Prior knowledge:
By secondary structure, the chain is α+β, with helices and mostly antiparallel strands. It has a domain at 57-161: Glutaredoxin, CATH 3.40.30. It is 47% helix and 10% strand. The protein has helices at 3-13, 36-44, 57-73, 90-101, 116-126, 144-153, 155-159, 165-168; strands at residues 76-80, 108-111, 133-136, 139-142. Strands 2-1-3-4 form a four-stranded mixed β-sheet, with helices on both faces. Strand 3 and strand 4 form a beta hairpin. The radius of gyration is 24 Å and the shape is globular.
Amino acid sequence: xxxxxxxxxxxxxxxxxxxxxxxxxxxxxxxxxxxxxxxxxxxxxxxxxxxxxxxxxxxxxxxxxxxxxxxxxxxxxxxxxxxxxxxxxxxxxxxxxxxxxxxxxxxxxxxxxxxxxxxxxxxxxxxxxxxxxxxxxxxxxxxxxxxxxxxxxxxxxxxxxxxxxxxxx
Length: 169
């Protein structure tokens, strides 16, 4: 680190001269990858910082019933951020694109950004913490990582409903 940068860093950090004498390589204070999540969650997580639901018990039950009805009445449902034409998140875009790559466009979707109660409720409904979420025949398939792996391995095409002859005409 140049003398000018060292002086600027001392001023910004309000560190006395001898305490900041050389740059420290970035990796010196990092944790091994295997232990980092456990250490960080043990030391930096507190129940006060856990996500809090803004939905009352009665409203939560109503949302859960609505979700159950939605996934049972539609062959394929994608809970995503945005819509298939204009996704608002890269993960949602990837899942919508995987469905398009399979030639499948006849599915219901819910833009969870428009419905915060659904955004919270679907995570509880599936016991899965992230969006997007894909359901086929009322069964939770997974989030982006699982859907993309299935798409890559050809498994996604096998579980998607085939268009009926009546739909084609």
